[in-house]
């Protein structure tokens, strides 16, 4: 099938055409993924591409290029972003604690309860926080099982990502990328607090 025809079918919503594009260009993109030597035991190029394929399937509506070269460049950009995110998270964890636990002002590193629940010592706000936590858990329960599991275990139960990864049958790097995707899915489902009041 001609490149233009395959791309047109994919843009029109044909899932088989999109999968064919991924089969055609995925190996080339994966060959360009260079996992740092110190992280190769917990992250692989396959991990990065697995998350990238999920991102493509979920976000293809945002793709605007008009050629397969443009599609390959977009795929490469997504993979690079996933790789950089995984490296950043894994190295932060190795430095003695994932950044989300100490930097509540960073969008990418808020804990779930800090990000979505009112945090205060007053009785009225404590009640509001409990209500938001209940809504948060309800929203997590509606996510796909793997996404819900990584958020419950890592963010709410505060378990090490290595343990979460073992439960999911993934590498820690893949589990971190799954968490990032889960946060993106959760964000529109839960009202975010209007202000940060500091730790309770």
Can you tell me the overall shape? Answer: globular
- The figure for the number of domains is 2
Low-confidence stretches: 98-110, 117-123, 193-200
Q: Output the number of helix runs.
A: 9
The secondary-structure element order is HHHHHHHHH
Q: What name does the CATH topology of the largest domain carry?
A: Rna Polymerase Sigma Factor, Chain: A
**SS-based class:** mainly alpha
Give Rg in angstroms. Answer: 19 Å
| Straight-line distance between termini | 60 Å
CATH class of the largest domain: Mainly Alpha
Q: If classified by CATH, what would the architecture of the largest domain be?
A: Orthogonal Bundle
Descriptive report:
There is one protein chain. This protein is mainly alpha-helical and 200 residues long. The chain has two domains: 3-94, Rna Polymerase Sigma Factor, Chain: A (Orthogonal Bundle); 100-189, PhyR, sigma-like (SL) domain (Butyryl-CoA Dehydrogenase, subunit A, domain 3, Up-down Bundle), CATH 1.20.140. Helix content is 64%, strand content 0%. Helix 1 packs across helix 2 (15-31), helix 2 (15-31) runs antiparallel to helix 3 and helix 2 crosses helix 4. 29% of the residues are buried. The model is unreliable at 98-110, 117-123 and 193-200 (pLDDT under 50).
